Amino acid sequence: MLTRLLAAAVGLAVVLPTLIYGGMHGAAVLVLVVMLIGIDEFVRMSTPGDRQRGWLALGPPSAAFYAAAIYAEPLTAVMIGMMGALWVTGVVLFRPGPVEGEGAAPISAIDQAARLMFGGVYVAALVSTIPLIRGFEHGMSWIFLLLTVTWAGDTGAYFAGRAFGKTKLYEKISPKKTREGAAGGLLAAIIGAVIVRQLGIPDLGIVTCILLAAVLDVAGVIGDLAESMIKRSFGVKDSGTIMPGHGGILDRIDSLLFSGPVLYVFLTLTA
């Protein structure tokens, strides 16, 4: 527990000042680092024995799409995404060994290509919404709301699950999660969102705030379950080991990968 708390404290000491004082550009650099680490973790999980080719296939198009999503027109980002799919296919097409897969590349070529394309969407595309949220009016307050809903939801679910948890939420994917824990997390997320709204987003209606917090919390729970599904499919316990006591980067941002895009769509539609 102490190791987890120290790792979280160090992380917050880096993340919060960058988000607060760095503006959208600081957030973009910070999230870029997170994205590249996440790409590495996904390649390690998804393409065992062929990490270098996986990085060659996924790294460059992910970085290009990320930059375009933040700084270019939407159509440019779409075109780079399409070219990225061609790039991944080409790199996998000329891999050594049989198409069926064996030896250094134990999975088939089409399986490897599909995994890497999914990784580009799952990591690069979804995480790119975080800097974009920072660029909105009251962007830092919206980031705080997103982080508060996510962390309060996780914490509330943990303690409510330990105290009252009896009914499994989705046992085949995450045996420890319970419906009672999910309900406690939802309540904590709403309370956290209302506090942030009072302090930094007074124009946000209270009913809208509650509904938004509920949707973001549900999206975060689905994101958590989705990452558990990915890890089970690849046969790993954690996505990585970069954060002592916490696992990998993807283990820490799995909820944000789903709740971030939902908040971005909300802000885009209501701006």
What separation lies between the terminal Cα atoms? Answer: 41 Å
Helix content: over 70%
* β-sheet strand percentage: under 5%
Q: Strands of the largest sheet, in order across it?
A: 1-2
Number of helices: 11
Unreliable stretches (pLDDT < 50, length at least 5) are none
Shape: globular
Structural class: mainly alpha
Number of strands: 2
Main beta-sheet annotation: 2 strands, antiparallel
Descriptive notes:
The chain is mainly alpha-helical. It has 2 domains: 135 residues, no CATH class; 132 residues, no CATH class. Helices cover 76% and strands 3% of the residues. It has 11 helices and 2 strands, in the order αααααααββαααα. The chain has a two-stranded antiparallel sheet. A hairpin with a 3-residue loop joins strand 1 and strand 2. Helix 3 runs parallel beside helix 5, helix 4 runs antiparallel to helix 5 and helix 9 packs antiparallel against helix 11. The longest helix has 29 residues.
